[in-house]
């Protein structure tokens, strides 16, 4: 074997140093990723009265309508984790209710295509007791303690106040 002259030794040493320097480096740590089921479950859990399957399906329907819209992120977790769109801590608070299995089953059903029959294209909701001062809110459903609405030009709003609550419209 022929001994290396100083120039190749230095080059070889620099290559080795570069390789070794990268060994301990990794991508920046990110928060654990949630699955679509967990993200939808979290939205339904924190935004609806957990005893109302219709309310949970309606919230899930809004999330899925947003996923399908160009105005919102294109993933369930992207929609649910958007700033100031859902309950504070929706992605981090603990879910401790006995209703959690029902919420999970309902989230799976929505991800498989179940929708609330009255929510249609609605992408928004608020607590049913809240009265907004806007004239562009066309209400389509009230369930699980929330009123669901579409934003429309004010001249196309035919239902300017929340409709009466209806339960028992979804399967399960």
Question: Care to describe what's here?
Answer:
A 3-stranded antiparallel β-sheet has the order 1-3-2. The relative contact order is 0.16. It contains 5 helices and 3 strands; from the N terminus they run αααααβββ. The chain has helices at 6-23, 36-47, 53-67, 76-80, 100-111; strands at residues 124-127, 137-143, 146-151. The protein has 172 residues and is an alpha+beta fold. Mean pLDDT is 85; it is low at 10-32. The protein starts with 5 loop residues before the first helix and ends in a 21-residue tail after the last strand. The protein has a single domain (36-156), classed as Arc Repressor Mutant, subunit A (Orthogonal Bundle). Helices cover 36% and strands 10% of the residues. It is globular. Helix 2 crosses helix 5 and helix 3 crosses helix 5 (100-111).
Question: Which descriptors would you attach to this protein?
Answer:
SleB_dom1, Cell Wall Hydrolase, hydrolase, 5 helices, alpha+beta, three-stranded antiparallel sheet, Arc Repressor Mutant, subunit A, 10% strand, signal, 3 strands, 172 residues
């Amino acid at each position: 074997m022929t001994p290396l002259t100083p120039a190749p030794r230095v080059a070889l040493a620099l290559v080795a140093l570069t390789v070794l320097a990268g060994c301990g480096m990794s991508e920046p740590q990110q928060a654990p990723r949630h699955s679509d089921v967990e993200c939808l479950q979290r939205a339904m859990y924190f935004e609806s009265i957990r005893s109302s399957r219709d309310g949970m399906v309606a919230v899930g329907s809004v999330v899925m309508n947003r996923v399908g819209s160009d105005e919102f992120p294109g993933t369930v977790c992207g929609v649910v984790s958007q700033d100031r769109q859902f309950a504070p801590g929706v992605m981090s608070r603990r879910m401790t209710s006995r209703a959690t299995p029902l919420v999970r089953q309902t989230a799976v059903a929505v991800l498989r295509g179940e929708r609330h029959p009255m929510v249609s294209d609605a992408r928004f909701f608020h607590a049913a007791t809240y009265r907004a001062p806007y004239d562009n809110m066309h209400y389509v459903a009230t369930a699980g303690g929330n009123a669901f609405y579409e934003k429309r030009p004010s001249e196309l709003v035919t239902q300017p106040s929340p409709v009466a609550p209806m339960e028992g419209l979804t399967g399960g």
